[in-house]
Amino acid sequence: MMTLMQLKVFVTIAELSSVTRAAEILGITQSAASAALATLENSNQVKLFNRVGRSIELSESGQRFLPEAQVIVSAVQNASRSLRAIGGKTTGSLVIAASQTIANYWLPIRLARFHAEFPDVSLNVKISNTRGVERALIEKRADIGFVEGPVTSGQLVLTLIDHDQPALVVSSRHWPSIRKTGVSVELATLPWVVREIGSGTRGILEKLLDGQGLNWDELNIILELPSNEAVREAVEAGAGVTLVSQHVVASSLKAGMLRAIPIDVPPRDYHMVIDKERVIDDATKALTNMITSGLDEGGGSSTLI
Q1: Positive or negative torsion for Cα 225, 228, 233, 239
Q2: Which of 134, 195, 242, 249 has its CB surrounded by the most CB atoms within 10 Å?
Q3: Is residue 176 scored above 60 in pLDDT?
């Protein structure tokens, strides 16, 4: 006999194509998610996913079963939401716009915690760069935003929620080719892999250049890429150096694939952003309260590695 949790695990894994991310969203351990899926498959003698290396994809049986499972899970969620609304519980939906580093490395654990406390609030995360998040809020396409770069609109209210330490990294096997003067790095002599215009990650480098009296055009830019992960992969392959959040490169540094170049770069701020003209509903208030209450508990330093 299948359980509702087994169906939730199956649907969430199918929608995210990841057991790890599904477990985070559901607020359970990865082993618990894997066990629930295995029980569902074994008890019904059906293979719902094909495992190919580290990836996972729906099998033919899984594709056929997914729509029915989604209907059941959605119906139960709607019924629960209605009942909780009758009892005065927080319900609703939130569209969250977040820049890449925050969306991939800072938000998931916090949204999982929020979902566990407020299961009747539907969360939809849209990933963009800082400029994209700003536009989404101004154009009313998002309810709340999270950015690691500066915003320019006076229509938005920013709340400092955390800090992030950038790192200058290079492929370990290309470390000897880095030219330095004493302990300082000659930025203009380095081959750079950078993010696109409007990203908070690119903004770190722009600010560093300004501090050293250099112009962007003086850099030797090898590649400009649209995501942190693409930048990291290119640098690991030896394309050049990059300045990026330590979150993005932590595992590569630990594995020895990348090496950090000593450089004095101040931490950058993470901000929660809301349109000052927006009417704050119960769902938004619940999320902002959870995020800001973490600051009083020392959460403001949690992203420093």
Answers
A1: positive
A2: 242
A3: yes
